[in-house]
Amino acid sequence: MTSNRLPNRGRVDHGKPVRFTFDGKALQGLAGDTLASALLANGIHLMGRSFKYHRPRGVVSAGSDEPNALMGTRRGAGQFEPNTRATIQELRDGLEATSQNRWPGLGFDVGAVNDHLGSLFSAGFYYKTFMWPRAFWDRVYEPVIRGAAGLGVSPTESDADSYASRFAHTDVLIIGAGPAGLAAALAAGRSGAAVMLVDETAEPGGSLLSEPDVVIDGKPAWDWLAATLAELAALPNVTILTRTTAIGYYHQNMIGLAQRLTDHLDTVPAGAPRERMWKVRANQVVLTQGALEKPLVFDGNDRPGVMLAGAAQTYLNRYGVKVGDRPVIVTSHDSAWYTAFDLAEAGAKPVAIVDVRTDVAGALTDRAREHGIETLIGRTVTGTSGRLRVSSIRVNRVENGKATTPRDIACDTVLMCGGWTPCLHLFSHTKGSLAWDDELKAFLPGHRTEAVHIAGAGRGLWGIASVLADGAAAGTQAALDAGRDATEHAHTVEADRPGTGITVKELPTDRDPGKAKAFIDFQNDVTAKDIRLAVREGMRSIEHVKRYTTNGMATDQGKMSNINGLMIASDALGKAPPQVGLTTFRPPYTPTTFGTFAGYHKDATFELTRKTPIDPWAEAHGAAFEPVALWRRAWYFPKPGEDMHAAVRRECQATRASVGMFDASTLGKIEVAGPDAVTFMERMYTNPWAKLGVGRSRYGLLLGEDGFIRDDGVIGRLGPDLFHVTTTTGGAARVLNMMEDYLQTEWPDLQVWLTSTTEQWATVALQGPNARKLLEPFVEGLDITAEAFPHMAAAECTVAGFPARLFRVSFTGELGFEVNVPARHGLALWEKLWEAGQQYDVCAYGTETMHVLRAEKGYIVVGQDTDGTLTPADAGLTWAIGKKKPDFVGKRSLSRPDMVAPGRKQLVGLLTDDPTVVLQEGAQIVADPNQPKPMKMLGHVTSSYWSDAVGRSIAMAVITDGHAREGETLYIPMPHHILTAKVVKNTVFYDPENTRLSA
Amino acid sequence: MLLIHCPYCEQDLPELEFAYAGEAHIARPADPSKLTDEEWRDFLFIRTNPRGVHFERWRHINGCARFFNAARETVSDRFLLTYKAGEPRPDVAKLTGVAQ
Amino acid sequence: MNAMSPLAAGVTITELAPTVRIALRLADISTAPGLALPVKVGERSAEGGRTVLCLGPDEWLIEAPEAGRDALFAALGAISVPHSAVEVSDREITLELEGPAVLTLLASGCPRDLARMPTGSGARTVFDSAQVVVTREAEDRFHLTIWRSFAPHVRAILDLATRELAAGL
User: Fold this and answer.
1) Distances from the Cα of A46 to the Cαs of A573, A733, A915, in angstroms?
2) Nearest neighbour of A887 by CB, restricted to B14, B32, B59
3) Which of A149, A660, A757, A922 has a CA-to-CA distance to A778 between 20 and 30 Å?
4) Where are the transmembrane segments (chain A) (predicted)?
5) Contact B76 A746 (CB under 8 A)
6) Would you say residue A270 has pLDDT above 70?
7) pLDDT tier for residue B99 given thresholds of 50, 70 and 90
């Protein structure tokens, strides 16, 4: 294999070889290489196959706009990434890279048959081809298309890396560390402003890294760069982040930065995240992102060895890699001429410079002649040849806009330049307007919506001198706007390479344009003729052309293709480009890993999980857990050999037979205090509170203003002006917010205050006939006999030596207590009660048993038996409404016509005809199982359990007009059979006289 | 992520500290029973949803915990100003003048 | 920019022993003369080991050592107008974060610009998805007061971020 590496050239470390593999083949590059530059150094241009036609493709660019050289990269187990851009991935020791979109191999690929069938795969192919027959949609087309589609291969292992995120705040954020960005950073940094300068590549410098011969402030470019970076590094107010891509520009100068921390490292330090997402709030933003080079559009412009001229210059000067020995340069811009000169001076033999313009500066043509390079001015290119690498180019004269006499020129690379597009993706994210500059044939920044400054090639300037001056001015202005004193510094520039160019549509050809494969979008395989076809078939807006052809819809978001596509569409439509418009750029600027977005939210910190003070005991005693809102709650406590069903049966039996213990700490708790507490409670809850005595509690029902049930809970009155409100576990935050809303905005005159005490208290529920016997010895300062402390009594006392709030309350139908102690004592209380409870065969039960026991009593769970559309009447809770109250939240809605009309879904009991059958929760219910599908569904099962206490299965359901269906048989169709059940209006299945809880 | 000026904290603070709370200046009727069904329906469900300046409520829920009001331009998603709960609705014409 | 030095030395994280904590709600601060209630949201007064942080226009978080419990309750008892004083000593856990990189560490989850928070002040804000009360005790020392069940998540992210800082990238 030939080496195209030039000794002592570039910024790579020639003394540090780096070993890597490509498609399993061992190769060597240098420290400082990208994967692409290392492959090119090894003479490898063929780096992938295209997405649709599987055409062989080489690297086109040297930056993040690369559409072709996308590879799978791997470091180890769980560290595979598809679609890595070889132009961005830095070489590291042991890097494994594999090409994509090919089988069996890159050199010979079966899928390339698509290329020969190209005329079948024209624009809109999918829309036209897979229309009929309808039956084929799911079974034939979808699997076949899916199998062939997709870019790269998804990783199959979970990601082994960690990721990070960080907020930052700065005066000035400068995006792009090329000459404009560096000048801006100097200006802003010297003012004392806090400055962040970010660049997506491995080192700052931008175009200076590709143009070492320019002289700035009397120093060669790279010396100036080193001095500038040293000065910036010495400023404590300046931070430089490399390998950091600004991916999105959001409101009020919030910028997302994706920083790659370890992908370039041979070995990763322990604890180092792979990538970090920065969320930066900047007072001022300076965009110095430069410009992106456009390809020229001609038949065969995608052959390996055909690449952007600017990229070749970067490979040469930054990486010391000569991309070819006998390049032909094809250009519409002066910049590519310098690529030819640099290559010639590095020892390559550029064969010819083909310029599609008719007029080129004499200085350039003279210099080309000095290098012995043939200049072909005013020509067109009509084809290339070569199988896996370009071997010749077909150049024609142009007369009256028509290609005439062709000539084949042998070459080993074609370096093209179709002009430069100012990089305004981030600016577009701000909804800043773009203004078409007809001379430059480019969109330039127009109206700004943010505190943003755009400088350099990003606003159409060319040449280091003008870009430096512009960057310095922008940096100064940004510092001033951020409230700093800043003075502008001038830079002197010698040996600059100013230049101009034009932007053209596809190059004229003497061949059948219908057969030309002149690519615009390399990644999505969109050609010039696809765009013209789309226009012929009626697409008028660029947005339609884009979607019909998929131009610009690949992961590069059309960085190379948008303007070329627009030029051709506008020509086909006979309209000026700004009338055709530009498609919208959206974040992220470049493809960004899911890990970067996830940040720390992975594995144990994937999601916040709340645990109660008693959770460690449950874990130690083998509890199975279930998530309830953000909490993890003990679900059941299986003994060895028990499944959930067996454990729950045992827990239910033990609780009803003697006593069970339940961790109720997750219940929301709100302290409502103040002289107007009663008034407030009267207004919020449906129930009456004025006559509730101190030391008593009551079930409270909370509606929304729309009359639908929002929450419920037991509320104790601990003083004339003090209520201890409990809410559902999941409703705690919502209820407090709702209460605060009414208090602050509707009734600010009320003297009452709300404090969340959910986590102040740990709550242990003791339920069962022996609950009092177990608790009594621990209670000080309170008589808890049935007479002194009846059902729904509440008091403050001492339990087991801890200050406590004690409620006699039951969610099981048994004699029950809930003991609240300060959270730090929760576990100790639980353990003391557990120890003492052994004499009563106490049983710890979890949420599943709690659900069974409450369902046996017909107690609803808000959010399970209600769904936000049930009124108190629908749920059979009219008894909880204070009939004499003039008003409460939701009261007026209860008399709205729809709320009293027939046909409402209502909560009822459901008893299966076969008492051993337990219905599935969520199962749909119908009146007639023989009706045609789709059946009319009357409602669904909300709660369903096996009940030992009742000796059969029990269920609750919400059913249309359910309350009027007492005794009616309804049907529950299942996949393979139909179940039958009878409606019962009374959902109290167990101990309907409530004798047990009054014990 | 927006920066929101809390009129109680008198600071511009990150949106993550705030929660949106619906349209502003819709007072709960003092005596809902006096409202017709249509009037009550409108109070419950009918909102202006303008293209332009929207008066809306926010809560500095992860901060001072106060509900307050804001005028926000729904096209640009920009706050024109924020003000304390209970203060009168500002003049739209003046606001858009300020915005320009 | 002091929040961004990637190479700053470590930060120690310590869970503090419980103190007496009171959530005080009051309409008129002139009625609580014994408590030195600061007026502006974010301001904190400190007196004899007791601190009073103004969290909202009518809300204060009072912290006192256990030894000062009686004195605190006496001062609360002397408030002459309707108010709400709820003990929340067990509701929260306080973490102390100290070290030169403390701002960077906090930036792993807190969206506020804490570099601008003056020493001796504080605020309720968020860290990751948890509501927290942040106070700045010294130039490089902060307290994070977090509802008990949210604290392990906050701590876990702080530990990840500490490892990240130690890795030096």
Assistant:
1) 36, 59, 71
2) B32
3) A757
4) none
5) no
6) yes
7) very low
What's the complex ipTM? 0.97
CB-nearest to A608 from C115, C130, C148 is C130
Across A624-642, average pLDDT: 97
| Coil, strand or helix at A395 | strand
Q: Verify whether the Cβ–Cβ distance C41 to B62 is below 8 Å.
A: no
Question: Over pLDDT 70: what percentage of chain A?
Answer: 96
Residue A193 burial by Cβ neighbours in a 10 Å radius (0-12, 13-18, 19+): buried
Chain-chain contact of C123 with B63 (C-beta, under 8 angstroms): yes
**∠ CA C71-C76-C78 to the nearest 5 degrees?**
95
Contacts of B9 in chain C (CB under 8 A): 41-42, 123
SS3 content of chain B, % helix, strand, coil (to 5): 25, 35, 45
Q: Could you give the angle at which helices A528-536 and A562-573 cross, rounded to 10 degrees?
A: 40
Q: How far is CA A801 from CA A770, A821, A826, A886, B13, in A?
A: 21, 10, 12, 44, 45
Structural domain span for residue C129: 12-16+91-167
The answer to whether A887 faces chain B, any CB pair under 8 Å, is yes
Percent of chain A as helix, strand, coil, to the nearest 5: 25, 30, 45
Other Cβ atoms less than 10 A from the Cβ of A541: the count is 13
Nearest to A22 by CA among A109, A110, A105, A78: A105
pLDDT tens readout for residues A283-292: 999 999 999 9
B 17-56 residues inside an 8 A Cβ radius of C: 17
State yes or no: pLDDT of A126 exceeds 90. Answer: no
Instruction: Please report the residues numbered 63 through 102 in chain C whose beta carbons come closer than 8 angstroms to any beta carbon of chain A.
Output: 82-84, 86-92
Give the CA count within 13 Å in the CB-facing half-sphere of A120.
9
Q: What is the pLDDT of residue C5?
A: 42
Confidence at B92, pLDDT banded by 50, 70, 90: confident
Angstrom CA distances, A439 to A436, A443, A501, stand at 9, 10, 9
Q: Which of B1, B17, B66 sits opposite C125 (nearest CB)?
A: B17
Q: What is the pTM of this model?
A: 0.94
Helix axes A542-549, A528-536, angle to 10 degrees: 120
Contact A746 B27 (CB under 8 A): yes
Question: What DSSP line would sit under A63-126, residue for residue?
Answer: STT-SS-EEEEESSTT-EEEEEETTTSBP-TTEEEE--S-SB-SSSBGGGHHHHTGGGG-TTHH
> Is some CB atom of chain C closer than 8 A to the CB atom of B57?
no
Residue range B72-84, pLDDT digits in tens: 999 999 999 999 9
Q: Which candidate from C4, C82, C130 shows the least CB-CB separation from A675?
A: C82
For chain A, say whether B46 makes contact (Cβ under 8 Å). Answer: no
Q: Cα(A336)–Cα(A352) distance, rounded to whole angstroms?
A: 12
Which contiguous run of DSSP H or E holds residue A499? none
Distance to chain C for B9, nearest Cα, Å: 6
Answer with the one of C70, C87, C104 that is the final residue of a domain: C87
Which chains does chain A touch, 3 or more C-beta pairs < 8 A?
Answer: B, C
- Which of C88, C104, C129 has the CB atom closest to A755's CB atom? C88
Contact across the interface for A254 and B1, Cβ inside 8 Å = yes
Band of pLDDT at residue A915, cut at 50, 70 and 90 = very high
Q: Which domains does chain A have, with CATH numbers?
A: 13-121 (3.10.20.440), 166-291+422-486 (3.50.50.60), 295-418 (3.50.50.60), 518-584 (1.10.10.1100), 667-757 (3.30.70.1400), 855-984 (3.30.1360.120)
The full set of domains in chain B, from first to last, is 3-99 (3.30.2270.10)
Which residues of chain A lie closer than 8 angstroms to B19, CB-CB?
737
Chain mean pLDDT for chain A: 94
Nearest CA in chain B to C122: B63
